[in-house]
Q: What sequence folds into this?
């Protein structure tokens, strides 16, 4: 059941992205920026958390989930440390994904060459 | 013919261009994005379940899951397979975190020839950079509001 929900929620988020790319002049880069900000904004309103409870990885794997991780870390740090958390929480839950992206990105660029 | 509205030709031209411009097959594209994006999330759910089976909570397993998905996205971009997937999956391959990894690896490989610092190192963030900038700015603003409401 949780796999079906992950499929439906994740698929729906990607379908929205595709509609934006086809029906508006937004490029993939614009969609990614929009989605991360939208995810952060909806997390601030407490809406995205509900979607994560329903969709699991279907809500956390799309880039809106990255926005959710940014904000959830900020909230946790504010609850624990006060105003300091506004900045210290940003990469609390996202550091693994970002560090992995930079390290693996570097590694792959080292080993692979562009296709002709 | 001299009395003709000078804008008429332009209007006519614009209208004809709009008529001839190939329209994206929106329904087909959306279904493909839904299916491929959904399947990538199912894979993510399986990776999440694996880490949970090791005794992690869903929250603890989120970071490792993101890392594995980022690795897969980066690796398949290196092999050239991810861009093949992107040709028909569109947003289905762009929106998941594997697409974020793709947006880092793809220019890094492409611009390696311009050097390791100004090529690979700098171009890596041509898409990931804006994502981090706007994600961070939004999160900090949301954080400030949350902090103020707690006072």
A:
């Amino acid at each position: 059941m949780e796999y079906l929900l992950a499929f439906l929620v994740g698929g729906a988020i990607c379908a929205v992205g595709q509609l934006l790319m086809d029906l508006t002049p937004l490029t993939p880069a614009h969609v990614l920026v929009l989605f991360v900000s939208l995810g952060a904004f909806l997390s601030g309103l407490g809406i995205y958390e509900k979607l994560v409870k329903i969709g699991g990885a279907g809500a956390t794997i799309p880039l809106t989930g990255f926005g959710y991780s940014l904000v959830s870390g900020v909230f946790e740090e504010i609850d624990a440390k006060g105003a300091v958390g506004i900045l210290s929480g940003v990469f609390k839950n996202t550091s693994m994904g970002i560090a992995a992206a930079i390290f693996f990105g570097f590694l792959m660029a080292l080993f692979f060459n562009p296709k002709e | 013919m001299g009395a003709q509205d000078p804008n008429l030709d332009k209007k006519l031209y614009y209208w004809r261009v709009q008529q001839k411009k190939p329209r994206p097959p929106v329904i087909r594209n959306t279904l493909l994005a839904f299916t491929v994006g959904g399947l990538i999330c199912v894979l993510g759910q399986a990776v999440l379940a694996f880490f949970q089976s090791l005794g992690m909570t869903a929250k603890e397993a989120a970071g490792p899951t993101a890392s594995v998905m980022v690795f897969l996205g980066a690796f398949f971009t290196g092999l050239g397979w991810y861009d093949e997937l992107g040709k028909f999956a569109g947003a289905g391959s762009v929106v998941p975190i594997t697409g974020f990894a793709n947006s880092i690896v793809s220019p890094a490989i492409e611009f390696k020839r311009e050097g390791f610092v100004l090529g690979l190192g700098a171009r890596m963030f041509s898409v990931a950079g804006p994502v981090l900038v706007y994600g961070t700015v939004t999160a900090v603003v949301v954080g400030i509001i949350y902090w103020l409401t707690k006072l």
User: Anything to note?
Assistant: Chain B touches chain A through 77 residues (CB under 8 Å). Residues 26-110 of chain B form one domain. Chain B has a mean pLDDT of 92. The longest helix of chain B spans residues 26-53.
